Amino acid sequence: MTSDPTGLPVLVIGAGPIGLAAAAHLLERGLDPLVLEAGPQAATAVRAWSHVRLFSPWAEVVDPAAEKLLTPTGWTRPDGEAYPTGGDWAEQYLQPLADVLGTRVRYGTRVAGVARAGRDRTVDADRERQPFTVHVEHPDGTEERLLARAVVDASGTWATPNPLGADGLPALGERAAADRISYRIPDLRDPAVRARYAGRRTAVVGAGASAFTALAALAGLAEDAPGTHAVWVLRRGLTGSTYGGGAADQLPARGALGLAAKAAVESGRADALTGFRTAAVEPSAGGRLTLVAEDGTRAEELDEIIALTGLRPDLSFLTELRLALDDRLQAPTGLAPLIDPNQHSCGTVYPHGANELSHPEQDVHLVGMKSYGRAPTFLALTGYEQVRSVAAALAGDHQAAARVELTLPATGVCGGAGLYDEPARGRDDSEGCCGAPATPQLITLGTPGGGNSCSPGGSC
């Protein structure tokens, strides 16, 4: 086994928005990327929520290095002020970017393990001189081992949604009721999905943008399908911050989502069930379901449940690497204090890069939504800045890696798990979540998906 990684590619895990941007920045730095995507095409996770509109406009979801690669092909950026759906993002930007990268992107290639060649995590000797060995699996069951000089994990968190249980474990009976529980925002354009929720009583569990989107979508369905009703299950009470920043949010489309959820409750198309920490899912009369809280409170006569309780990173294939991860968020220890909802009720997460994303294992970086671990908010702009910095660091340009080249809109980690027992601290609730001094003009959300969200695909 070679002990000289020079000339080997930088392996990028995931052909989503951040992984593809990482490849573009690596090429710009003269490094050779190899992107491994488990799905059959680029942006597989984004395509799974193609019906959901982002709450960032095109101007904020196209990476500069990626645009440089695309422009010679005749590609032109869509209207910068327009808000794409996940499908638009995939078809009009991400797939063309992957096509430009050509054979540097390999599909149907699932990473099963990453380690130092010839060294498990316990071995110190000559460790940093060894390349990385990456075990992959193909759809036909065959396996392969690849070598890499560095690893950039942009695999996201889409495949590992959080369960219903308030303790982080599946609620009792959750697995048995799996056919009645969805962990995704419903696509009501699909006749079969529409029929699943029309005229039925659905619990929406969660407090973030995804839950807002689902509530707005179900409220819209109720206009055409009498009997459609949502029960919004929240761990804490209703306060001024429950619905987000509203008109004060510097991402106006995100603010509009919260207002749409508020309208659903105020119109009577959704009821808010507060202070409810799910412990069990039980069958009830007529084939319906009951949610049971830890304190014994019951939410009965439910036909369906939509669990939108966040996402978590899959770390199973990284166990032989020496990672420094926060014991609460499962995010890099250098980044965790900036995004920890136990510490931050609101506020902007400033741009960060290779320094905050580094680990004891040299030349390994978790980027994109995966870098945030279990923290609830993430913007594509943040990921693009991350991979710009990481590519500079891998190329040896540590000055550029440390330089901040991005100004983000105000966006915090409001309403995180650590604050569910109390209102957000440090501000007047009347100001809303992540408020800004200015009041941007709200946009109208008019897509069949009922709204827009970063959280379904991990970034926007």
Please specify the SSE layout and strand pairing.
Layout: E1 10-13, H1 17-28, E2 33-36, H2 44-48, H3 64-70, H4 86-101, E3 105-106, E4 110-116, E5 132-137, E6 143-148, E7 150-153, E8 181-182, H5 191-197, E9 201-205, H6 209-224, E10 229-233, H7 252-266, E11 270-273, E12 278-284, E13 288-293, E14 298-302, E15 304-307, H8 336-339, E16 364-366, H9 380-394, H10 398-402
Parallel strand pairs: 1-2, 1-7, 2-3, 7-16, 8-15, 9-10, 9-15, 10-11
Antiparallel strand pairs: 4-5, 5-6, 12-13, 13-14
Index terms:
5-stranded parallel sheet; 10 helices; 16 strands; 22% helix
Strand content: 15-25%
Strand neighbour order, sheet with most strands: 3-2-1-7-16
Q: Total helix count?
A: 10
How far is the N terminus from the C terminus? 41 Å
Q: Which radius of gyration do the C-alpha atoms yield?
A: 22 Å
Helical amount? 10-25%
Which H/E pattern describes the elements? EHEHHHEEEEEEHEHEHEEEEEHEHH
Note the overall shape.
globular
Mean pLDDT: 86
Task: List low-pLDDT spans.
Answer: 411-455
Count of individual beta strands: 16
Outline the biggest β-sheet. 5 strands, parallel
